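Lab notebook: predicted structure, single chain.

Context: the supervisor wants predicted structures on file for every construct in the current expression panel, including those that have not yet been purified. This is the next one on the list. No modifications to the sequence; it matches the entry in the shared construct table.
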Amino acid sequence: MGAHSRPEQPEAALATDGIGRRRFLGYVVAASTLTVAAQLGEGALAPQEAAAAVPSLPGPAEIYDLNDMLTHAALPTANLITIRLDADGTASFALPRAEVGQGVTTSSAMLIAEELDLPLDRIRVTLADARPELLFNQLTGGSNTTISTFTPIRVAAAVARGRLLKAAALELGEVIDTLTAKAGIITSAATGKSLTYGELAEKAASVTTTQVEVTLKKPADFEVIGTPQRRIDALAAVTGRKKFAMDLQVPGALPTMVCRPPTINGTVRSVDNLDEVRAMPGITDVVRISTGVAVRGRTFGQCIDAVRALKVTWGPGTAEGASDDTIRAELRRAELPLPALGLLAKAVDTRFTFHFASNSALETNCAIADVRQDSAEIWAGLKSPITAQEQIAAKLGLPVTAVKVHVTEGGGSFGRKLFHDAAAEAAEISKAMGKPVKLMWHRTDDFRQGRTHPMSTSRVRATYALGQVLTYDQRHTSVATDFGHGVGEIITSEVAQLPVGGLTFSETIFTLTQQTPYNFGVVTQLLSETDQGFNTGSMRNIYSPNVRCAQELVVDELAKRLGKDPYGFRREFLKDDRARAVLDKVAEVGDWGRSMPAGTAQGIAVHPEYHACVAVLAEIDCRPGTTGRKVLDAFTGPRVTKVVCAVDVGLAVNPRGLQAQMMGGIMDGIAITLTSGLHLDNGHFLEGSWDNYFYTRQWNTPPELEIVVMPPTTGSPGGAGELAVAGAMAAVACAYGRATGTMPTAFPINHGGPLGFEPLPTTPPIPASPTDGLSRAF
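Prediction complete. Output recorded below exactly as produced.
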C-alpha cells in the first residue's frame, strides 16, 4: 500500500478553518490534581456549489447532514468531558465513545498531545462508563467521533496547558511569557530552570470550578495533528493483552450460551429434557428466557454440548416462511412512484436489488452481567451505552442509578454494537439464574439470529436530452432498518421504535445522509420501508453503499449513451471542487483509460459524505481463468486486481489511521459487491458462519492497493470511518459492468448462483465443532 503524506501548507491555504484563531471558553474543574473541561464544539460547514448547464439545488444532506446533527447534539454537554493531569506527569482521558478498532483512542490522544505539548506515550485514554448526564454525547456512529470531539478535547487540553504555565510562573517567580511548555516540561528562557507537568499537577489544581479563556494552536503550528502515528493500542493488540469483554475476570461469572430457535425470532413452547441437561458435566444452570434457553457451565465447550443436547419445541418466528423471493415481492409493492416521464426526454430506468448482508464482526456478541436484587453491573462493547443502561434498568425494574454499564473495547462492530442485544440478554439470564454470567453468542447465532443489513431495492430513473441530464429520481425501498438505539439516549430510542416514529426516524437518517454529487437537474431521492420482522441494524455506511452503487452504475450508463468517457462525464457534472480533485487524483494515479485485455476493466466512482469525499478506481478480472479458480469450500469468482483510493477528509488527524480506515472500507465494498450476502429461505438464513459467508478473502484481495490522503482542504476533520465502503462498492460494480458488458443489477453478484457450501442444520442451532482442521490447512 502506498501513501502520500501532506505537504506543508501556508496558513492561507487553510482559510476554511472552522475555528481559526477564535478564543474559546473552557473550565478548570475543582479537583485534587489539575482537571479541565471544554465548553464548545464544532459547527456545520457550508456546502460548495458549482455551475453546470442544468444545475441541481443542494440537497438536505449537503446543507445539514447527520454528522452536523450529531455534533450539535453533543455540544451542550461537552463541558462534562474532562482531562485529568496526574502527579506522574501523565494525562488521563475517559473517552465517551467506543473503540471498536477504528482508532479513536489514538486520534483522541493525538488531540490532547498537540494542545497540551505532552508526548503521545504520556496520554492514557480509557473508555467511559455509561453517563446518562451526557445525553447525546455518548453515541459512537455516523463517523462522528473525531468531528464532534475535535474542538472540545483541544480546548480542554489548552486549558490545562495554560493552567500549568501559570502555576509554573508562580512557582518559579517568573513572567509567564518567559516560559515554554514542551514534552511535559515547562522551562524558563531567562534562567533555564524547569518543572515537569507532574510536579505542577497539584499546584495547578483548583478548589472551585472556574471558567477560563484559551486560544488554540494554528494549523501551521501542528506537530502531532496531521502526522502519521502508530496506534497507541497496537502493542497490546498484537501481544494479546488487549481486554475485550470475554477477557475480563468478574468473580463468579461463568461461561453462558443460549439455545436459539431454528427460524428468526422463534419462541420456546416447551423444553423436554431440562433435568437431563442440568445433570450434564459442568452445567450449573439451565433456564428459559425470551430468546431461547440459556445454559451456564464451567467451560464454553460444556455449554456447547448442553445447547446441542437440549430438546426444545419451538413456536413460529417473526419471518416464518419468508424467502428472498417473498421479500423482494413485498419491496416491489412498497415502492414509491416515480414522476411522470416527459415526452421529449430519453431515460435510463433501472431497478437494483441488494440482498441481506451480515454485519457480524470478528468478535461475536458478548457481555458479562451480574444482576442482584437491588443492583446490576454490565460489561460489554457498546456504542450507545446510555440507551443500554436505561433500557436494561427498565427491563430489570431498577432505577438507572442502580445499573452500572462499563464499556469494553470491541473486536469490530460494523454497526452491530450500536445495539446492546447481548448485554440485555446477559442481564435477563443473570436475573433468572441469580448468578453472574459471561455470555457469548456462537458464530452461527450471530449469522442466523443476529442483526443484518436489510434487503432493499433501488429504482432509478435519469432523463437526458441534448447532452445534459435533466432529472434524477431514486426510490429506495428497504426492509425496515432498526434505529432503536436512537441518538444515544432513551427518548429518541423510544421514538425510533414507535410504529410511525420508526419510519420517520429512518426517513430522517436517509435524508441527512444521501446526496447526489452531480448537477443532474431536478433531483429526488426518497426512502420507503416495510417491516418484515427481521433483526436489522445500520451496517457500516447505513444506506449509502446501495444508494451510491445504484447511482454510479446509472452514471456509467448515462455516459455510455451520451458518448462520453465515464471519468470525463463525472468530472463535467460534479458540483464540488473537492470531489473533482479526488476524482482527478485516482484517474492520474490509477492510469485511467489504459488498454486492458478483454474480460478486464476499470471502474471509477465518487462518494461525498460528512464533509469529506472519496474517489475509488478499481480494476477487475472477470475472465474464465479467474472466475473458475478453485479453493476448498470457498467462492472465488471475479477478482479485483487493483484499487486506487483518494480521500479528502478536510484535515486528517492521523493519516496512517485514515489509510487503515480506507483499506477496511475498500474490503467491505468488494465483499458486498461480489460475494457477501445472506440467502433467506423458509424463515431463516442459510449462511451459518464465516466459512460460508464469503467476505473478501486473501485470494480476492487486490494485489495492488494505493491510498492517497489528500493535503488538508479545511482546518477541521470530516467523517472517515464509513467513507470508503460506498465508493468502493460503486467502483467495483462499475468495473464489473464494463468488463462483462452488462450492468449488474443484483448484489452480491454471486447471489443467484450455486451456494458454494452445504448449509448447516438449524437444529441443533450450534453445529458440531469441526475435527478436520489439519486437512483444511493450506
